[in-house]
Amino acid sequence: MKRKQQVTKRETTLLECFKGFFTEKLANNLSRKTLDNYEKTIYGFLKEFEVEDMPTKDINEDLWYRWIGRMRNRDLSISSINHYIRDIRVFFHWCMDRDYIEEFKMKELKQQEELPKDFSDDKLTVLLERPRDEDNFSVWRSWAITVWILATGNRTETVRNVRVDDINFKSKEITLTTTKNNKAQIIPLTPALERDIKYYMDQWELKEYLFPDKNGEQASYNAIRIGFTRFCESRGLDQHNLHGLRHSFARNWAESDGNVFKLQTALGHSSITMTKRYVRLYGQDMRDSYQEHSTLEKLTKKVRKSGDPVRKKR
After folding, report:
1. Residue 19 half-sphere exposure, CB side, CA atoms within 13 Å?
2. How far, in Å, are 50, 205, 208, 223, 251 from residue 228 at the CA level?
3. DSSP labels, 66-117
4. pTM for the complete prediction?
5. Non-local CB neighbours of 196 within 8 Å, separated by 6+ positions
6. CATH of domain 121-303
7. Contact 226, 131 (CB under 8 A)
């Protein structure tokens, strides 16, 4: 009987492993936002706990839980700790697959489930009121982005990459070229969205990006976020989480009995787990159709009047 050969773990440091991990993810064409998140959370974690130079052979389950204990002692919220866990778990699994560290389980901490921070219909009605003629471009852009997300459920990163030419008014379709999973997607242009986006485009000279900065260049994520915050405050709202519009889209779809698999496609979830959470929290049995379940379609009748005059472009 032959003795089983013992596998020796490859020896290196966590920092060297992270460099390899990051290089591979970069080569795999992950989105810039995902890469930035990995760099911020994983490298930041290694640096904060001063373990960049720790040999990978010293990583084990006991050390993992001691790290979690240190985070708990720093009064970090369970949500923040679980955010670290999810990102670092991806990195550690990468290390495990390459025999840098021993395999062990890395579970998230249990916490009381919180409802997604969506906007109430009353608040959405306030946000959907069309801007005044004297309002600046930032207000108009924030209003148009609100309209867009409530009709499509798109992420902010997708929205800021939408170009004017991505909208086909003839076929009533929108081509999304930038999504979290890097797969292009064609979605319907619903009547209310078409009407409001045309109205927005009639006010401003938009050459490339649909939601640009004031100079016509692609708007940064922070510019869109800050602009939306000011937009909400100008309308007397103390809630201004941009992602809440996406939650509102999902809530309305679930409450309207929208099909869970179509909702997964609309939201761009790689796993149906998160989609089912919306359905479990808000929904019942499901049906289909963007137009039927769009939050914008539902609320637009409250705040729109047909036949608004087209104003001169600025």
Report:
1. 7
2. 37, 21, 21, 8, 20
3. HHHHHHHHTT--HHHHHHHHHHHHHHHHHHHHTTSS-----PPPP-------
4. 0.67
5. 130, 144, 147, 296, 300, 304
6. 1.10.443.10
7. no
* Amino acid, single-letter form, for residue 238: D
CATH number of the 14-97 domain: 1.10.150
Report the Cα 235 to chain-centroid distance in Å: 24
User: CB-based burial of residue 142 (10 Å sphere; 0-12 exposed, 13-18 middle, 19+ buried)?
Assistant: buried
- Give per-residue pLDDT as tens, 128-154: 999 999 999 999 999 999 999 999 999
User: What backbone phi and psi angles, to 5 degrees, belong to 74?
Assistant: -90, 10
Q: Are 202 and 311 in contact (CB under 8 A)?
A: yes
Domain boundaries, the chain: 14-97, 121-303
Sequence letter at residue 192 = A
- Strand, helix or coil at 177? coil
